[in-house]
Amino acid sequence: MTTSRRSDTTRAAILDAARERFAAEGYERATIRSIARDAGIDPSLVMRYYTNKEGLFAAASEFDLRLPDVGAVPVKHVGAVLVSHFLDRWEEDDVLTGVLRVAVTNEAGAERLRSMFGTQIGPVAAAVCPDPDDAPRRAVLVSSQVLGMAVARYVLRLPPAVEMSRDELVAWLAPTVQRYLTAERP
Fold first, then answer.
1. 167 near 132, Cβ under 8 Å?
2. What angle do CA 100, 104, 106 make, to 5 degrees?
3. 45: left (phi > 0), else alpha (psi -120 to 50), else beta?
4. What is the pLDDT of residue 2?
5. pLDDT tens digits for range 28-66
6. pTM for the full model?
7. How is the chain split into domains, by residue range?
8. Among 16, 95, 150, 170, which lies 20 to 30 A Cα-Cα from 63?
9. Is 51 left (phi over 0), alpha (psi -120 to 50) or beta?
């Protein structure tokens, strides 16, 4: 195995271990040593590749929301499509839940979440809202809905939020998300 391939394998092992630790323990409790142990490497390699815990967290929390192409969706269905998409993302990947947990207690995590949602939801809002100058405001409103439900359902695990079916959640949240994206400005 070449040095480059070995390096890529080591980086991947570090990131996998870091994602699991940050998701399970949060930023403060996860340590470089425990992440290195989980990856089966020396802690000095973690520092070599990522400099410090904050650099490791930034790399481990890179996350593509894989938002659907709203140009291919009738505008009146964008809210439902986005809510369904976010439910899928939260349910299939613990990394996003881990980033959310860290974001509520750590500034580096909060910045990562702000950046992720700002850069990825902003263009969706701009594509469908009546006035593209309102896109950042509308993106924040959409984010408040999906992040709020994510906290309730996947982090705090509030019984009513956990007990609702996907269809119920979409039925409740989609009209609000739709309004945020496409309604005339109040």
1. no
2. 105
3. alpha
4. 63
5. 889 999 999 999 999 999 999 999 988 898 888 777 788
6. 0.80
7. 3-60, 70-182
8. 170
9. left
